[in-house]
Amino acid sequence: MSTNTPEELPNCEQCSQQYNLFRRRKQCQLCGQIFCSKCTSKSIPSTKKRACTICLLIINDRTTHEQLGSIRTKHLRAYLIYSKIITSNRLLESCFEKQDLINLIQSRKQQTPDETYVFVQRPIDEIPAPTPTIETPNNVQPAQPESAAEPSPSPPPSMPIRSSPKIAPTRKTLADLSSLESIQELTVGQLKDVLNQNFVSYKGCVEKHELIAKLKLLYRDKQQQSESNTSISNGQSDENLCKICMDEPIDCVFLDCGHLCTCIRCGKQLSECPLCRSYIVRVVRVFKS
């Protein structure tokens, strides 16, 4: 069963109205999706780009988390990738839930420029109060000052001080780990980051040694997978390979239908099971003993 692309759909995906002479197909310049001309009639004043009503809601500074939560995940992903806020590969590695997409959009609105300037104003010297004048008789000349007072130098102009950029912490991946002993040297944040990259949940782990145990299990499973891939490449059957990319072994199961046919990375990108076409409720990683 083949799915139609937005260009082939007879009705607008947003308002469900049929395309006709007065309601033509137009592309939103913020998310790249195709809608009718009525749904993409507004433009951004600063850039003059054509935008759909959903993207206008996304970029509005007054939009709340609850309002963004009512928008489909498909549209949030399309806006982030087409607007070049984040690449598709980076999106798959860092954003696993819909709430992650919403937090990325909200943080993008509040993001400050990389270089900030702090102006330091020196205090201005107090101006001396004028001396009172004393009336003298006509035949007495006022005493002349010995030397004219030199004008006080003006304070130098304020100079901008450029703040030094913050150094981002080193990010670790599973490929960077050379042995089980190297896992002990990672921090708690690095342990959680590596587990997130490989779609391993660490809910319920409150101690560092619990995170280390999970990562060690993941490391051993990765070693076994690499050994199985080597044996497969030597002439064995490819029935255990992912049916989408044909590179990684099958290591996930689709809930609701129970099929095992893809790797975890390909399974996260699918909305329907490639075998039975049923809607994927959740993708769970499996570990082979």
UniProtKB/TrEMBL annotation:
<feature type="compositionally biased region" description="Low complexity">
    <location>
        <begin position="128"/>
        <end position="151"/>
    </location>
</feature>
<dbReference type="InterPro" id="IPR036361">
    <property type="entry name" value="SAP_dom_sf"/>
</dbReference>
<dbReference type="GO" id="GO:0061630">
    <property type="term" value="F:ubiquitin protein ligase activity"/>
</dbReference>
<dbReference type="Pfam" id="PF22968">
    <property type="entry name" value="RNF34L-like_3rd"/>
</dbReference>
<dbReference type="GO" id="GO:0043161">
    <property type="term" value="P:proteasome-mediated ubiquitin-dependent protein catabolic process"/>
</dbReference>
<dbReference type="InterPro" id="IPR013083">
    <property type="entry name" value="Znf_RING/FYVE/PHD"/>
</dbReference>
<dbReference type="Pfam" id="PF13920">
    <property type="entry name" value="zf-C3HC4_3"/>
</dbReference>
<keyword id="KW-0862">Zinc</keyword>
<protein>
    <recommendedName>
        <fullName>E3 ubiquitin-protein ligase rififylin</fullName>
    </recommendedName>
</protein>
<feature type="domain" description="RING-type">
    <location>
        <begin position="242"/>
        <end position="277"/>
    </location>
</feature>
<dbReference type="GO" id="GO:0070936">
    <property type="term" value="P:protein K48-linked ubiquitination"/>
</dbReference>
<dbReference type="GO" id="GO:0008270">
    <property type="term" value="F:zinc ion binding"/>
</dbReference>
<dbReference type="InterPro" id="IPR000306">
    <property type="entry name" value="Znf_FYVE"/>
</dbReference>
<dbReference type="GO" id="GO:1902042">
    <property type="term" value="P:negative regulation of extrinsic apoptotic signaling pathway via death domain receptors"/>
</dbReference>
<dbReference type="InterPro" id="IPR055111">
    <property type="entry name" value="RNF34_RFFL_HeH"/>
</dbReference>
<dbReference type="GO" id="GO:0005886">
    <property type="term" value="C:plasma membrane"/>
</dbReference>
<dbReference type="Pfam" id="PF01363">
    <property type="entry name" value="FYVE"/>
</dbReference>
<dbReference type="InterPro" id="IPR001841">
    <property type="entry name" value="Znf_RING"/>
</dbReference>
<keyword id="KW-0863">Zinc-finger</keyword>
<feature type="region of interest" description="Disordered">
    <location>
        <begin position="128"/>
        <end position="166"/>
    </location>
</feature>
<dbReference type="GO" id="GO:0005737">
    <property type="term" value="C:cytoplasm"/>
</dbReference>
<keyword id="KW-0479">Metal-binding</keyword>
<dbReference type="InterPro" id="IPR051728">
    <property type="entry name" value="RING-FYVE_E3_ubiquitin-ligase"/>
</dbReference>
<dbReference type="InterPro" id="IPR017455">
    <property type="entry name" value="Znf_FYVE-rel"/>
</dbReference>
<feature type="domain" description="FYVE-type">
    <location>
        <begin position="6"/>
        <end position="60"/>
    </location>
</feature>
<dbReference type="InterPro" id="IPR011011">
    <property type="entry name" value="Znf_FYVE_PHD"/>
</dbReference>
